[in-house]
Write a structure and sequence with these properties.
Radius of gyration: 32 Å
Distance between the termini: 29 Å
Strand content: 15-25%
Number of domains: 2
Order of helices and strands: HHEEEHEEHEEHEEEHEHEHHHHH
Helix content: 55-70%
Shape: elongated
Strand order of the largest sheet: 4-5-10-7-9-8
Number of helices: 12
Number of strands: 12
Structural class: alpha+beta
């Protein structure tokens, strides 16, 4: 086998240009798959990190049933109508593991400051419960307590208005004057929407802004309880209250990860399919090269058989040649794939920034797992072997006398 392997490598070396061109086809295929899947994994890692960053022990209940389904026709179903009530709050409070239950109401309002007017979202909740549940924290000042006090999201205070809004400044919300008592930390990423909100006591929202009802119920999970299990119990209880009807959505960390994974899985399948076409082209290139090699070396095969080479040895020479091309193509493909993935993400970031749209999350980087590397190498080697199998068999089946007469 050592001599057979040496002979196979020698044949590849003395056909440098053809070997290089065939190798290029395999490299492109592997690089496409590794790069695009690695880029998708990198995006998934960033999104998962963002979810864990702020909402690891908080569950949100919102009205309406949210569904995200991927079908051959890419069917999408959004929120179905629903409503939350005080009874829902009471029943959720009885569930083991629900440490703090905070009903809240939010609405779009007109905010005026320094001669500018903007339409923003106001979030109203009980001050004590808001302090317990909040995972962002206050950058300047303090949380709201009562009366016409307002806590501003980071972007509202620092970025949206031409003049920065500081502590003790006055803003008008729907024509009513409120005093700024604090500025939230910057949430950024997937939770950038929090930076563009304003926060007021629920009693003040009802009295001065005429906001009532419940648009969201936030639940802080007690330490030692599994948020996923608590979310399941909340869902069961609310369905029981509605006699089996589901007109609400329980958003837990697991739910958020599930939605992100569905989207990214669909993207990976699409990108993997496109990259697979490149791989198929590479396999055809290997097969074509090996068929040509058999024709060129027909007399050589005849001589080897005449001096005692067996059918198995002839097949081994050609299979090793195609396998080497597949394997080394896989190694180079993994290296170039990392570069392709990083280039894809950098290009995406460039066009997003050039368009003036703020990115939702920080720029992700390619994430290539050891499993992906091993799978890519094994797959490329297997493709090489399979692509060379038929030419190798054809070479092994040549009769010595006919091969020696071949011109």
């Amino acid at each position: 086998m050592k001599e057979i392997a040496r002979l196979a490598v020698y044949n590849l070396y003395h056909r440098k240009l053809r070997t290089f061109l065939t190798l290029t086809g395999v490299v492109i295929g592997v690089a496409s798959i590794v790069g695009l899947i690695g880029a998708a994994e990198g995006i998934n890692s960033v999104i998962t990190g963002e979810i864990e960053k702020f909402q690891s022990n908080v569950i949100a209940v919102v009205p309406g049933e949210f569904k995200l389904q991927f079908s051959p026709l890419s069917q999408y179903e959004g929120m179905k109508a629903g409503k939350l009530s005080e009874r829902d709050v009471e029943e959720i409070s009885k569930i083991p593991g629900a440490e703090t239950v905070m009903p809240s109401v939010s609405s779009r309002v007109r905010v005026e400051y320094g001669g500018e007017t903007m339409i923003l979202t106001v979030f109203a909740a009980d001050p004590e419960k808001f302090r317990e549940i909040d995972t962002i924290g206050v950058l300047e000042g303090r949380y709201f307590r009562s009366g016409r006090e307002v806590l501003l999201g980071y972007s509202v205070a620092k970025e949206l208005f031409e003049k920065e809004i500081g502590i003790r400044k006055k803003v008008r919300i729907n024509g009513v004057e409120f005093r700024v008592v604090g500025v939230m930390n910057k949430a950024g990423g997937l939770f950038r929407a929090f930076d563009t909100m304003i926060y007021v006591p629920k009693s003040s929202a009802k009295k001065y802004l005429e906001l009532s009802g419940i648009t969201e119920i936030d639940v802080k999970v007690e330490e030692g309880y599994d948020p996923g299990a608590v979310a399941s119990r909340i869902e069961e209880k609310l369905k029981e209250l509605r006699k089996g009807e589901k007109d609400f959505t329980v958003i837990s960390p697991d739910f958020s990860r599930s939605i992100a994974n569905q989207i990214l899985s669909a993207m990976q399948i699409l990108l993997g399919g496109i990259a697979g076409i490149s791989f198929l082209v590479g396999a055809i290139g290997i097969s074509n090269m090996m068929f040509t090699s058999v024709l060129e070396r027909t007399r050589e095969i005849g001589i080897m058989k005449a001096v005692g080479a067996t059918r198995r040895q002839i097949m081994a020479i050609f299979l090793i040649e195609s396998g080497v091309i597949g394997f080394f193509g896989g190694i180079l493909g993994v290296v170039f794939g990392y570069g392709i993935g990083e280039g894809f993400l950098a290009l995406r970031q460039y066009f997003v920034e050039k368009s003036g749209v703020q990115t939702v999350v920080e720029r992700p980087h390619v994430l290539i797992s050891p499993e992906l590397v091993v799978a890519a190498l094994l797959f490329s080697f297997a493709v090489g072997i399979l692509a060379g199998a038929i030419p190798a068999r054809r070479a092994a089946d040549l009769q010595p006398a006919e091969a020696l007469r071949y011109e």
